[in-house]
Amino acid sequence: MFSIENQYIRAVLASKGAELQQIFSKEFQLDYLWNGDPAYWGKHSPILFPMVGTLKGDTYFHEGKTYRLSRHGFARDREFTVTRQHFDSIEFLLKSDDATRLIYPFEFELRIGYILQEDRILVSYGVTNTGDRELLFSIGGHPAFRVPLEPGIEYNDYLLEFNEEETLPRWPISGEGLIENHPLPLIKQTQFLPLSKDLFRSDALVLKFPASSEVTLRSDKASHGIDFDFDGFPYLGLWAAPGADFLCIEPWCGIADSVSADQILDHKEGIQRLEPGEGFGRNWSVRLW
């Protein structure tokens, strides 16, 4: 395990998956990240790469060949190398190798950075095409935050407040983990989404192209919450395991296959593209209060 800290925050990270394990507010003496209880969901904040969500039949086609890749890709299960560490920041690196090429025939470098900025943690994703042909990929985050954050408050007392007024449907997920072709109503002309565990009875809420770039997790009954910034991510997932006391706020550049997908990687909705030598970067951040 690795740790970084400043006056306000201590964060603990694992080299496996370059995954956050803890975000602890020294100021408020509160853990903000889910504890990873395996009875519900044994992760904290996995990195989704080189795919976000489920591929139809766990399979995709590229340049006439067939490849199999499990849900959310392989980065979350791989050992990363630490390339840089200071008292308040750290960077992890994963490179393509013989094992990745068997299931994902591209050359890449994936860098995951964590930087503490006063009461905020900034998470950065950097992808570089180190090969000689176009790189196709998706990437996303999956951090889980404790809900409730304080004793005496219920899950249903919390809400998400978007920083812009939203009219957003949800895109249902099939039993195979694929995006259905027709959305369902969720919120209309409001900034507020009240939380309840029933929201996730049918899997995650998948939102496409929200107007907002930030959501606040809060309760009128609570003193503490988070501001979550996801500027530059066109998709947002919201999820909690059945009965669990957490909320995943998931910024995505990419999305699961639809039920009607033809499985050709070049046709995939939300796929990111890099020419040889090009780089890609996105950040999300969380302010603790």
Which percent band covers the strand fraction? over 45%
Task: Supply the number of structural domains.
Answer: 1
Number of distinct helices: 1
Largest sheet descriptor: 9 strands, antiparallel
- Bin the helical content: under 10%
Mean pLDDT equals 97
The CATH topology is what? Beta-galactosidase, Chain A, domain 5
Q: What is the global morphology? A: globular
Q: What's the order of the H and E elements?
A: EEEEEEEEEHEEEEEEEEEEEEEE
Number of strands: 23
What strand order characterises the main sheet?
8-9-10-11-23-19-18-15-16
Structural class: mainly beta
CATH architecture, by name, is: Distorted Sandwich
- For this structure, what is the CATH class? Mainly Beta
Distance between the termini: 25 Å
Low-confidence stretches: none
Query: What is the alpha-carbon Rg in Å?
Result: 19 Å
Question: What can you see in these coordinates?
Answer:
With 289 residues, this protein is mainly β. It has a single domain (2-288), classed as Beta-galactosidase, Chain A, domain 5, CATH 2.70.98. Helices cover 2% and strands 47% of the residues. The protein is built from one helix and 23 strands. The strands form five sheets. It has a nine-stranded antiparallel beta sheet, with no helix packed on it. Strands 5, 13, 14, 17, 20 and 21 form a six-stranded antiparallel beta sheet that branches. Strand 1 (2-5) and strand 2 (9-14) form a beta hairpin. The longest helix is centred in the middle third of the chain and has 6 residues, at 98-103. The chain is globular, with a radius of gyration of 19 Å. It starts with a strand and ends with a strand. The mean pLDDT is 97.
